[in-house]
Write a structure and sequence with these properties.
four-stranded antiparallel sheet; Rossmann fold; eight-stranded mixed sheet; alpha/beta
Length: 591
């Protein structure tokens, strides 16, 4: 099923759903054709009644098969077949938890009847004793950071017919629907009728089974532009947040404008869409590619609080509302950040293979897998951002629940062959201001590749992971090495300086020692220690060329001595502190 995840399939929804594994979906949302003659590009929306009901039975049965035992099914449907499809769904085995009325402004104008301004939303579950309902996590009870201002110049100057959902309050009623203070903003002189729900803010609360979300009209920025029956993102957001968990699988068998899938992606849910129309599939996939996990949902979470009222409120209340919007904006930014972090953790879980976060970033193969999952999840950012976030989560202790069962082990004998090359490659990138730290280098695939190439020219024949892990090891050990070096004094008994290209290899000791590479008697390039001076300073033509690329002239000095008794890197710290070579890690000399 992985090939079908997080995308939209082209084809018949019944066949496509029957091809999915049984019991694999957590939440299904369906907004099927209403059978009212709407002009789709490849579907006939005017079937005979029994033909429509037979077809509905087929796709609802397919939804039931693909849902998990604790799965949830939401059905959006118009007046014409609401009762029939509710009964049909119950006969198939679903239990109806709620019959929600979605009330919207910009209703569809009708002739010789009141304007249609609502649809039915049925909340079904397979098991009435075991299902997801995250009431405590709802985010639709606070003011939005966006205002929906209905300022359409195309509006008919003669007005429109009233919606077919009316709010009528008897003039002498007390305590019904709203308070007298709120009724003061109603439209008529007797305060008995209002057309716009934002004029009665307490009449629509998020816990009720009548929901107010404006329909996605043609002038709204939210409009995808290619589908006439587009659902508001906030409506889908309420359903997906409430009835599924992060990383759950959300299915929409009538994908259309891909709103369900876009919202699912923003809320860090996996998703599958199906549609008959190749045009809708193409547009829907483009829409999915344009959003990221953690993006805010379009529209207002609580439209009655964000839409302007008919009668202006006092300036004091306006200022309070502005403060509320600022608070909400901060809350939404924080929420988006948390969703992205959850995606990073999930990608790490799927790809770490028992290793640490450091290994996942430093290992090219593991990192490629990790970044691929981040991309498929649609996380906001880029590879550098995702790697940095993984490092940050590790430092914050957010990965402690994910066990590290495998360890990366290289010996000092191995590091001795190439750690100097890793150190120099690292410092060259920092000196060139291409990076400010080792994390910058490792987190950026482009910089990491340049680092590998630079190190391999000085010490060829080792893997990318080896070069990168040596740099991490050096950084980790630097503090302890400085401490050990504090009681040591840098030796001065080095052999006389000799040009690199004139070095007599036969005279080099076959054992441990210290060495210095210089540009001149007073300017040092690099100070190092090694377990074998002959191996370390025997350079081939390409290595000599690389050293001479670092400086026009390179001179070598060495001192045979067993430096291991002080601990690795301790004597190197002494040399770095005394001579301040420009290609050594700066923290080695900050004792």
């Amino acid at each position: 099923m992985d090939a079908n995840l997080n995308t939209i399939q082209l084809g018949d929804c019944v066949q496509a759903m029957n091809a999915l594994p049984e019991g694999s979906v957590d939440l299904a949302f369906a907004d099927p054709p209403f059978n009212i003659g709407y002009e789709y590009d490849v579907y006939d929306d005017k079937l005979e009644k029994q033909q429509y009901l037979d077809w509905s039975e087929q796709w609802i049965t397919a939804v039931s098969r693909v849902l998990k035992p604790d799965g949830t099914f939401w059905l959006a449907i118009g007046d014409e077949y609401a009762a029939e499809l509710k009964i049909l769904s119950q006969e198939i085995g679903f239990t109806c938890r709620s019959w929600v009325i979605w009330y919207y402004t910009f209703g569809v104008n009708c002739s010789h009847k009141f304007t249609r301004s609502h649809a039915h939303l049925f909340h079904f579950v397979k098991d009435p004793e075991n299902f997801t309902f995250r009431a405590d996590d709802l985010d639709n009870r606070v003011p939005s950071a966006r205002e929906l201002v209905y300022n359409d110049k195309r509006a008919n100057a003669k007005g429109r017919l009233p919606d077919d959902t009316w709010l009528i309050r008897p003039a002498d009623a007390i305590g019904e629907m709203t308070t007298d203070d709120d009724m003061a903003t109603a439209s008529d002189d007797d305060r008995t009728f209002t057309l716009r729900p934002q004029d009665l803010p307490n009449a629509f609360t998020s816990e009720e089974d009548t929901w107010y979300f404006p329909r996605v009209a043609g002038t709204f920025k939210e409009r995808a532009g290619f589908h006439g029956c587009q659902m508001p993102e906030q409506l889908l957001g309420r359903i997906i947040r409430t009835c599924s968990e992060p990383e759950d699988l959300v299915l929409d068998p009538f994908s259309g404008s891909a709103t369900t899938l876009a919202v699912a992606k923003k809320l860090n849910r996996r998703h599958i869409g199906i549609d008959l129309s190749s045009d809708y599939v193409e547009y829907g996939r483009k829409r999915l590619a344009s959003v990221r996990v953690g993006d805010r949902l379009d529209g207002s979470p609580e439209p009655t609080k964000s839409a302007p009222r008919t009668t202006p409120k006092s300036s004091k209340k306006k200022r309070s509302f502005s403060i509320d919007k600022i608070k909400l904006d901060r809350h939404l930014v924080k929420q988006q950040s948390e969703l992205t972090k959850l995606g990073i953790i999930e990608a790490f879980k799927k790809t770490h293979d028992g290793f640490s976060a450091d290994r996942v970033v430093a290992d090219p193969e593991l990192n490629q897998n990790f970044l691929g999952i981040c991309e498929r999840l649609g996380l906001a950012g880029d590879p550098y951002t995702w790697n940095r976030l993984l490092f940050a989560l590790r430092k914050q202790g957010k990965l402690k629940s994910i066990p590290t069962t495998r360890h990366t082990s290289f010996t000092w004998n191995e590091f001795d062959q190439y750690m100097f090359a890793s150190e120099i490659a690292w410092q060259r990138l920092v000196a060139a201001k291409d990076a400010s730290s080792l994390d910058d280098i490792l987190c950026d695939p482009v910089l990491a590749s340049r680092f590998d190439e630079s190190a391999s020219r000085l010490a060829p024949g080792h893997s990318q992971l080896m070069y990168r892990w040596a740099a991490l090891k050096l950084r980790k050990e630097a503090t302890d090495a400085r401490g050990r070096a504090s009681s040591l004094s840098a030796p001065s008994r080095f052999k006389a300086m000799a040009p690199l290209e004139a070095l007599d290899i036969g005279e080099l000791p076959d054992g441990p020692g210290l060495y210095l590479l210089s540009e001149s008697p007073t300017r040092k390039l690099y100070a190092g220690e090694t377990k074998n001076l002959r191996n370390q300073l025997t350079l081939d033509q390409q290595q000599c060329k690389e050293w001479l690329n670092l400086s026009e002239k390179v001179f070598v000095q060495y001192l045979p001595m067993d430096h291991t008794g002080a601990g690795m890197l301790a004597w190197q710290c002494c040399l770095v502190k005394k001579h301040k070579p420009r290609l050594n890690y700066s923290k080695l000399r900050s004792a």
